[in-house]
Write a structure and sequence with these properties.
This protein has 14 helices and 10 strands. By secondary structure, the chain is an alpha/beta fold. It has 3 domains: 87 residues, Helix Hairpins (Orthogonal Bundle); 118 residues, Rossmann fold (3-Layer(aba) Sandwich); 75 residues, Alpha-Beta Plaits. Strand 1, helix 5 and strand 2 form a beta-alpha-beta unit. The longest helix is centred in the first third of the chain and has 30 residues.
Length: 334
């Protein structure tokens, strides 16, 4: 796309330079006024067939011949660029990119998913089901072709490049998730993303255990090993199948009307300073508070009706999705 812009810029610059050359030539060689020289240049280049303003001497006619050849060359090159632009599908790509850019410009607090492999697809599905805004960055031609036929906002390119992340709206993003196939690639993405937005929350896939400290040093907030999680899942499914089935239904957002959420108590929330009993969270919202993470990062192991809710408390809640949204609004969490 950049090459097309450069070629169009070259065409415009060439036309301007030929016009300037023609004006200067007729002014210097034939003594034409500037407006007459411009008029003569235009009718010569466009070959409209109008007569000469005044008779030209031999040098002026030679200059006119040169000008005609330059004009024909520019027209031929311009035609070639236009044919290539249309025949290779560059026009459709240009239109698609402009539409995508407008969609991304309207996003705020969105997720950026780097890589649409198996893990990236699963993450995208979950974000879609939860109706969370996200952008996928993918460089594979076949996956890009598939994604173009879906409602997913696609940015084609290498997630390690600054311009690609900037185009994906990294300055306004809430979180970046990188699921590339090697730890080296993921480390590079994390470093690049942190350099562009130091406040960005970053989650990354871990392929080799030895790379975990490097990913954290690079700036990742969350490092997840699919092998570790997969092994843990297999063992838990064998030992506690009903519990795993329940969690699957909650996390996948299918089959059940309940969900998990993290809800923080703000200073101006009506819940601030009240006990669990006084807040009537269970009665009014039908939400269960599993635990509370205090502002000092400590968890309350046992919650009772006398537990006091304070500013900065993070409630780990279980309940109906719509009721959780209402509780989030009451808590004053944005």
């Amino acid at each position: 796309m950049q090459s097309i812009k450069r070629e169009f810029s070259l065409i415009i610059a060439s036309i301007f330079m030929i016009l300037l050359l023609g004006v200067l030539g007729y002014v210097y060689l034939e003594g034409f006024p500037v407006i007459d020289a411009l008029y003569m240049t235009v009718i010569t280049l466009t070959t409209v067939g109008f007569g000469e303003i005044q008779s030209l001497d031999h040098l002026g006619r030679l200059f006119t011949i040169l000008l005609i050849f330059l004009g024909l060359g520019t027209i031929a090159y311009s035609t070639k660029v236009m044919v290539d632009f249309l025949s290779t599908g560059q026009l459709l790509l240009y239109i698609r990119r402009n539409r995508m850019e407008k969609k991304i410009d309207n996003l705020k607090n969105h997720f950026i998913v780097c890589g649409y492999g198996r893990m990236g697809q699963f993450i995208s599905d979950l974000l879609s089901k939860r109706k969370l805004p996200f952008v996928v960055i993918e460089n594979d031609a076949k996956l890009c072709e598939y994604l173009r036929a879906t409602p997913i906002i696609l940015v084609e390119g290498n997630a390690q490049h600054d311009d690609v992340l900037i185009f994906a709206g990294i300055a306004r993003a809430k979180c970046l998730i990188t699921t590339l196939g090697t730890d080296a690639d993921n480390i590079f993405v994390v470093l690049t993303a942190k350099g562009l937005n130091p406040e960005l929350k970053i989650a990354t896939r871990l392929n080799e255990p030895l790379s975990e400290p490097k990913l954290y040093r690079a700036g990742a907030n969350i490092v997840v090993s699919p092998h570790f999680v997969g092994g843990q899942r297999i063992v838990t499914s064998i030992l506690k199948p009903t519990f795993v089935e329940f969690l699957d239904k909650v996390i996948s957002v299918t089959g059940m009307e309940i969900d998990f959420d993290e809800i923080q108590i703000s200073e101006k929330s009506p819940l601030n300073g009240k006990t669990i009993s006084q807040s009537r969270i269970g009665q009014e919202f039908n939400v269960t508070i599993l635990t509370i993470k205090k502002h000092d990062k400590q968890y309350i192991p046992k919650i009772s009706g006398n537990t006091v809710l304070e500013q900065g408390d993070l409630l780990l809640a279980l309940g109906n999705y719509e009721q959780l949204v209402k509780l989030r609004e009451i808590a004053g969490h944005n």
